[in-house]
Amino acid sequence: MTLQVCRAVPHDVPAAADVLADAVTDHPWTRWTIDADGHRERLAALHRLFLSAVAVPFGRVDVGRAGERLSSVAVWVPGGALPDDAWARWARWPPGSRGTGRRPRTGPRRRWPSAASTSRT
């Protein structure tokens, strides 16, 4: 089957967010930064927000379809060329936060040893 690539439109955002979430759900960085409680759903919500608020309106998002199924996503966002209000919606993520921009944590925090504690004398 041939892959058909085209520019994404707002209607493609939910499926594109799911493809991106599937691609990085087991990546160590996303496992560390996105809470394990509802991890896959939180990751998809984060991608939906980024795609709809920033990437589709101000960058370029291409999607690849094999038949009717969306199977690939490429995202390009120009560095430094975004209007300040493009990031305004990010300040309230995750949904239910009090606008701090910080995500609520559950479980123990990972402690990294300081340079002083790991140096040998």
Automatic annotation (TrEMBL):
Residues 100-112 have a biased composition (Basic residues). Gene3D superfamilies: 3.40.630.30. It comes from the Bacteria. Residues 93-121 are annotated as: Disordered. This is Uncharacterized protein. It comes from Geodermatophilus maliterrae.
